[in-house]
Specification:
By secondary structure, the protein is an all-alpha fold. It has helices at 6-23, 30-47, 50-69, 79-106. The radius of gyration is 23 Å and the shape is elongated.
């Protein structure tokens, strides 16, 4: 996704997912609300930049914490919120890394090679004079 539309598209998609999840009763099952939110983050990370993916992950966490775990947009900090944050950030990081590799390969450039370690040189003792 070019021209910087990754974050705005993710913002709108996250808002739509949160509204639909709350309408479907996701406040009773907060982990189930993370599934479509994670899907939005993965799609944005695959199609846009890593910066947009992490921005969408942060917004998705805030929306989940504020409207699914909490009420009326009041952020909730606790084990469930930490789980949601970890899941969303991990999804953004892994998909952005995979997307970078795919874009790199599509550009026709080989992946960088890591050279093999060099053999250690033998230890030479210096002659000491006393």
């Amino acid at each position: 996704m070019r021209s910087g539309f990754g974050f705005p598209v993710g913002f709108v998609a996250t808002t739509a997912v949160i509204v639909a999840a709350i309408a479907a009763g996701a406040t009773r099952y907060p982990l189930l609300a993370l599934v479509p939110l994670t899907a939005v983050v993965v799609v944005v990370a695959a199609l846009a930049t890593a910066r947009a993916a992490f921005g969408v992950a942060a917004f998705a966490w805030a929306a989940h914490s504020g409207f699914v775990l909490g009420r009326a947009g009041e952020l909730v900090f606790g084990p469930r919120a930490l789980t949601a944050a970890a899941l969303l950030v991990a999804a953004a990081a892994l998909t952005a890394a995979a997307g970078a590799v795919v874009r790199h390969l599509r550009a026709g450039r080989p992946l960088p090679r890591i050279p093999a370690p060099r053999a250690p040189e033998p230890i030479r003792q210096r002659a000491t004079t006393v």
